[in-house]
Amino acid sequence: MHCAFTGWKVKSKSSPLSSLGTQRELKMATQQKEVSNAIGLEEIGTERQEPKKEQKTFTVEEAVETIGFGRFHIALFLIMGSTGVVEAMEIMLIAVVSPLIRCEWQLSDWQVALVTTMVFFGYMIFSILFGLLADRYGRWKILLISFLWGAYFSLLTSFSPSYIWFVFLRAMVGCGVSGHAQGLIIKTEFLPTKYRGYMLPLSQVFWLAGSLLIIGLASVVNPTIGWRWLIRIASVPGIILILAFKFIPESARYNVSTGNNKAAVETLERIAKMNRSVMPEGILVESVNERRGRFSDLLDSKYLRTSLQIWIIWLGISFAYYGVILASAELLERDMVCSLQTAAAAELGDDSEESHSPCHCRLFAPSDYRIMIISTIGEIALNPLNILGINFLGRRLSLSITMGCTALFFLFLNICTTSTGLIGFLFMLRALVAANFNTIYIYTAEVYPTTMRALGMGTSGSLCRIGAMVAPFIAQVRCFSCCHPAIRW
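Below the sequence we write its predicted C-alpha cells.
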C-alpha cells in the first residue's frame, strides 16, 4: 500500500512536467500553424493582386478610336460647326457695314481701317487668355462664356452713339469671338483620327454659310432699315446656338488630364451609347500629374521650332485672308476696275474735282453684293481637293502647295483686267486662303499634346491676328489712298 501510494505520488509529481511538455508542443504547433496560415494568406493576397497587374487599361484616344464615328459626331459637327456661322457673321460684318459708317460719321480711310484692326486686337489679346483658362477650367465653359460675351457686346454695338463707341464695342466683340476656337478643339478631340482630315475641312461650309448670310442680309437690310438693325439680326444666331451647348459634353481628354476620370468615362459611355458602339475593355488611365500648359512650354526646345513656324504661317495666312476680303470690298465700293477706258482717261489727265473728291457715301449697289457672294462661294470651291490633299499628300505638303498658289494669284490681282477677270481672281484667292486655314487648323490641333493644345491654338490664333490687324491699313488705306478710278494698287 505504501509502495502503491508512493508510486502514485511519484506519478502525480511527474504529471506537471508532462503537461508542461505537452503545452510547449501545442504552442510550437500553434506557431507553426500561424506561420503556415500567414504564408497562405500572403500567397492568396499575391494571387489576388496579380489580376490587378494584368488589368486591361485604355486611354481617351484609344476609346475614341474604338467607339468610332457615329450619331454623336454628326450632332457635334452641326453644333460646333455652327460656331463658324456666328464667327463669320461677326467678322464679315465690318466689310458690309464700312461704307455706311463711313457715310454716317464722315470717316477717313484710316478710321474705317481702325475698326477692323481693333476687332482683331481684342481677338489677339483674349485668344491667349481664353487658351490659358480653357486648359485650366475646361473648353466647354470658356466656349459658353465667349458666346455670351460676344452676343452681349454685339447687341450693344447697334446702339453706338458715336464712332468711338462703335470701335470700342466692336473690339469687345472681337474679344468674345476669340473663344470660339474652343469649339474646334472639342470637335477635334472627339473625332477619330482618320475622320479629322475629312470632317474639319467640311467645317468651312459653316463659315461660308455665315459669310453668305451676312452679305445676303446686308443687301436687304442696309438699304431699308439700316446697319444698326443688321447688327441686331446678326446677333440672333449666336444667342440661339447658346441653347444648343447643353447637348455638348466637356472634353474627355481635358477631364482626364485634370484627374476627373469618372466624368471622362461617363462622357465616353454616353458617346458609345449614342453611336451604338462599345467601350474598350479595362479602366481609363492617364497621367494626372502632368503640369498644366504654360506659355514657356511652347518655347521649350522640343516645340520651339514648331511653334515659331506655326506662328509665322498663321500670321501670313490671316494677312492674306482678311486682306483679300477687305481689298475686294474696297474695289467694289470705289469701282476700281482697271480697264482701257480708265487708263485712257488717266492719260488724258482727268483731274476733275469729282475724280479727287472724298468717297464718303459711295454705298454698295445690288450688283456689288452679288459679286461679293460669288467671290465668297469660292471659299468652298477647293474643299474636295483640299480634303484629298490633306489625307493623301499630308498636312505640310498640302499647305505648301496652297500657300504657293495663294502668292501667285495675289500677283495676278495686279494685272489690269475687266470686272469678270477681277471676280475670277478674287474667287480663286478666297478658295486658296480658305484651304490654307483648313490645313493649318488641323495641323495645329494635332501637333500639341492635350495639356497644351488649347494654349497652342490660342497663341497661334493671337499671332495670326497681327496679320489681320495690319491687313486693313494695307487694303483700305495704303492701297486705296484716293478715289480716282484709274488708280490701282
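The chain has a mean pLDDT of 76.
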